Amino acid sequence: MEEPEMQLKGKKVTDTFTESISVLANEPSVALYRLQEHVRRSLPELARHQAAMQRQEVQSQGAIYTAEYDRSARKKLMDGSVYFRSVEGLLKQAISIRDHMNASDSPPPPID
Asked: What start-end ranges are recorded for coiled-coil regions in this protein (predicted)?
């Protein structure tokens, strides 16, 4: 009669032990520990990616600034073409006047 009773007590002990192990394995602090392990392993890689992205952002901002500056300079040159044409016309007038004055200051060529 002792054997079935011992088996029942043994089963109770193993069931209780199994339940305790199950509770311990699924306890929130264990989950937090695993989460901490995961973060510790993956954080350096994420930090490297973030640094690389920041470097690329700085390079992109520099390129964008350069392109905008070039576009602005080109637009100003195009807008200034009116003034360049005006200066060109004035220079042509000045050259014409100089040539006319030089022609009137020189004596007429001798006739043979």
From this structure: none
